[in-house]
Amino acid sequence: MPLYDCMLLLKPHVKKEALMDLVARVGKHIYSRNGVLTDLKSFGTVQLGYGIKKLDGRYYQGQLMKMTMMATPNINKELHYLNKEDRLLRWLLVKHRDTKFGLDSLGEDSGINELTTFQRSNLFNDDDDVIEEDDDDTEDEYNNVGQDETEERP
Length: 154
Prior knowledge:
Layout: E1 3-10, H1 16-32, E2 36-54, E3 57-70, H2 75-78, E4 88-95, H3 120-123, H4 135-143, H5 145-152
Antiparallel strand pairs: 1-3, 1-4, 2-3
């Protein structure tokens, strides 16, 4: 089963009990479809970049929540009942790409031996020509800076 993030943006005046009720309903729906809720994170009240217009007004703040879940690929169609939820301003479902979990992540080449292909002698070769600056010229320039100005004054 693929991993999904469901972002929920709720109205700012929604109480914690109502918020947890909505999250529990979504979690039960996922669990009933043999999915697993793996993470739940609340970002608190956030300022929006623009107002979201609903029937009861325009909202410039919202409570942001992120639910991470492993669910079947048709979960997007199953969550469309959230469109009718009056406590929500917006919701978004994002699928994680190219992620492997469990024994799938331990393949034949687990990446442990990737760095052994580099040879230390190739990275730090002492035979390369090193460009050295002539420090004597720069020291003379710094020492002679003040002398030219004093000679011109009468």
